[in-house]
Amino acid sequence: MRTLFTRVLADLGRNRLHSIVTLAGLALALTAAIVIGLFVRQQYSYEQFIPGHERIYRLTGSVAQPGQAERISQVSPPMLAAMLRDRASDVEGVARLAYGFPALRGAGQKEAVTELKFAWVDPYFFKVVPLPVLAGDPNRAMAEPGNVVLTRSAARRYFGRDVPIGAELEWLAGRGRITRLRVAAVLDDLPPETHFDRQIFASGRTAGSSLGYMDAHPVPNGGGLVYTYVRTKPGGDAATLQPNLNAIIKPIQAMAAASGTKIKIWAQPIAAIHLGPGDPDLPSAKSTISPSTVRAIGIVGLLILLMAATNYAALMTARAGRRATEVAVRKAAGASQRDLIVQFLGECLVHVLIAMVLAMALVELTLPAINIVLDQSLRFNLLRDPMVAPLLLLFAVILALLAGLYPAFALSAFRPAIAVQGGPQGLGGHGIVRQAMVIAQYAILIGLVVSTATIYRQTHLALGEALSTGRGPMLLLVTRCDRNIVEQVRALPGVKAATCASGGAMNFTPQGAVTAVNRNGQRLTPGFVEVDPWFFGTFGIEPIAGRVFSLDNPADRALHRIVVNETAARHFGFDTPRAAIGQTIALSLEVGTHPKLESVEIIGVVPDRPMSVLAPAGELIYNDWSDAGVLAVNSRPEDLPVMRTGLKRLWPRLENDVPFATNSLEQFEHDRYRGLILQGTVISFCAALALIIAAMGLFALTTFMTEQRTREIGVRKAMGAGMRDIMGLLLWQFARPVLIAALVALPLSYLLMGRWLEQFAKRVPLPLWLGAATLAAALGLALITVGFQVFAAANARPARSLRYE
Amino acid sequence: MLKVEAISKAYETSDVRTHALRDVSFSVGTGEFVAIMGPSGCGKSTLLNILGLLDRADSGRIEMMGKDLSSAPEAALTKMRRAAIGFVFQSFNLVDELTVAQNVEIGLAYRGLPAGERRSRIAAALEQVGMSHRARHKPKQLSGGQQQRVAVARAIASDPRLIFADEPTGNLDTENGAAVIDLLHQAVGRGASVIMVTHSLAQADQADRIVRLLDGQVVSQTQIGA
């Protein structure tokens, strides 16, 4: 090994340009591979810090209403937990968690905040889901009403210390009521690898808790945001739970079937939650990532490694002739081909190990910035993380084999007799292989560029479809909201527009569902949202037929008049939006077997505004109803500070008991596409890296191959070739692999991107110009990279070229 | 055909300036076979490169076929090489990746000839040097003598007015060397002028005139068979 190191270091010193390019290419690829490896590993390691996580499940269901796509729901009916506990013998425990957004303050503090990381839990929640404890006994804590368990971060936020056992929080429960919550235990901060994002857990036995309310007021088909967690006994799993779930859900399924609705329920392992479809019932919950996205990112990492490997192999075989004499001498001294293969592979491994050290340094330096850009919390800890060192060694060995195997075979195959005479070494066949490697590199690069461009365009489309796009900053405040409040807010300086609506109207929370009967007598369950007359103007939604709600029409303020979207108008049986105006349909606010229907008039039709590009627009009905729960305030970007200040000053005078706390609609909508944005960012980053590696490799290869052809260039010039002839000859040599790569990579990329786009209801096309532009860019890269060297070679005096050894 | 006057050329490295040629003057007539001789390092190859327009002199005058090329731009030199010059190198300088026929074609590639004419000239040149049966072989499949014959074919395929040969038999045995010299004579017989650098007195004696160089200067010119 020492000899190998010495040999490699001597070679690095002799051939500096090639060495820098070789090592830099390997190091960059390894850096990308390490970061991607950390990312992929993190995605598959969720919840593993929870003891017995493999036996913990969350109940998940789906609802398919007639004419609508199946909708996954992570929430379950509140009474399901008790029914399962009574029925299933292989269940160790069942517990519920319900999100809440109370106004809280530390005892004695003046300002309250709307706590977004709060949950009500059943008393035995921490038996089912044993989260890491810092102090106290969470199980005993949750058994007592009025107790809370905080995480360390929440404890510091409210009390400035880690373990405030016995301290109190005040819950401003509205209408002047204040409930005291006592800190009974503290949890350690949860790692990033968990779907749990709550920091305050309060006993569901506390008076006024949503869990308590739901238990006291059960509804036949559920209601409320309740997540049900199940811990099976050893030996139990989702398959053993399913028959019990099916039996429990049977009456609910029968009831739903009357309206054509299909309901399913199953137990999802908690480790799979992060890789699931997300929580449509709580869009503000932690974002998930699809397994296909993780796989795609992993594959890109491997492609980058493959690219670096082919780069290395191409360079090594290009330089092979220089080592012919060494091979001849070793063979003459008795070395077998196997001995030489081992030697050359060993040299490659040394190169890779040196590059690995560089890569580890690069990862350490760049990981904080990468975490910010990707909004991740990746950690690289060689000493404390037992998996890292073996993984790195595995990468090194894989890369060394990928990169070194072919050159090792090529070099070890040299014929000693010819080599010692200084003759040519028959590398014609290897030249073809080298070309193939260059083609492979460019094919990967072209594929990555097409993918990056497509993902970017799709992301742009998705964000462009968002409600907030083009409106400027849009703040959302969850509050009691009436016309008086809206009018006062609209009069504030810096306010461009304001409106009050249900969260569902802004895709901030789920939309309600009602029962409607269309002109063909078909029953539908369209979405239903409440808005005020300012809503459509605030979001720039113009009617395509009829009108929207107006302050000048007080009669609009009733269920009897509705505005519908295009899809609703079509599904209600109207050929055109205009045909729907003034017509009536039957509508009920109930969803069930026998809803009480009333006749409502359609006064306007507006364009579809689907929640996301992932799903097609469903039917949506807008109703003018003023006490909806979200105030949206719009301003120009430059007026945002003034608007915020005015709003904050006005707030106490509105007497609505709700602390001043804002959300950004734009940020919320961006979060919806976090997975898509992440995918695009990672792939663009890898495409840029691939570009650098390809350029570096091509630069070094050009240098070497141009050197090799120096004499030939001299001969051609002696025979009358001009500079243009030589440049054309050499540039064509480097442009040809790009064209061949494009022939292979472009159709494949289009096919793969076409499949990827199928997940979106609204998608960008894949135009031909994208492929043409990518090809032009790849050719441009090749020509720019080699151009200077080719020009220098073509411009050299023939005599110098001919003297070249 | 070719005339040089007071040609000088020096090479500089970081420490030393070497005068490869000093005030060299001579001429070559149409159909003349001139051999340039001298010890190693006397400037023979440098002189040949300048005569063959592969390099430029630092000073002096060079006239080829009535044109003063002393300070002509590179494009003009390229044009002249394309139109009138053929080269035979000591180490053959065949391109390993090309076949014999393709190597010969290099000598015609830049003359704008139609494909059919190129093919017939390649065939004729290979026939002349006795290598037609190896047209599809690669250089590594040939012996040294055969490779040099292919190089000669490349040089004569375009029917040049001037052929420059830099020690064309240096890497060959006597028999092959003689065969190459014979091919050069045949070219002279067709009206070309040949300027050959050689170490071999026996081969130089087969020329019409011997120009001797020493330390970058012409020390004598001897007419053979005069």
Structure keywords:
heterodimer; A: 805 residues; alpha+beta; 13-stranded mixed β-sheet; 9-stranded mixed β-sheet; B: 226 residues; alpha/beta; 6-stranded mixed β-sheet; 10 strands; globular
Short overview:
The complex is a heterodimer of chains A (805) and B (226). With 805 residues, chain A is an alpha+beta fold.
Give an account of the 3D structure.
The complex is a heterodimer of chains A (805) and B (226). By secondary structure, chain A is of the alpha+beta class. Chain A is 48% helix and 17% strand. Chain A is built from 25 helices and 26 strands. In chain A, the strands form 3 sheets. In chain A, strands 1, 2, 3, 4, 5, 6, 7, 8, 9, 10, 11, 12 and 13 form a 13-stranded mixed beta sheet that branches. In chain A, strands 16, 17, 18, 19, 20, 21, 22, 23 and 24 form a 9-stranded mixed beta sheet that branches. In chain A, a hairpin with a 5-residue loop joins strand 17 and strand 18 (523-524). In chain A, helix 9 (291-318) runs parallel beside helix 12 and helix 14 (428-464) packs antiparallel against helix 21. The longest helix of chain A has 38 residues, at 337-374. The radius of gyration of chain A is 33 Å and the shape is globular. Chain B is α/β, with parallel strands linked by helices. Chain B has helices spanning 44-51, 74-84, 100-106, 115-129, 144-156, 174-189, 201-204; strands at residues 2-12, 17-28, 33-37, 59-64, 67-68, 85-88, 162-166, 193-197, 209-214, 217-223. A 6-stranded mixed beta sheet of chain B has the order 6-7-8-3-9-10, with helices on both faces. Chain B has a 4-stranded antiparallel beta sheet with strand order 2-1-4-5, covered by helices on one side. The longest helix of chain B is centred in the last third of the chain and has 16 residues, at 174-189. Chains A and B meet through helix 22 and helix 25 of A and helix 2 and strand 6 of B.
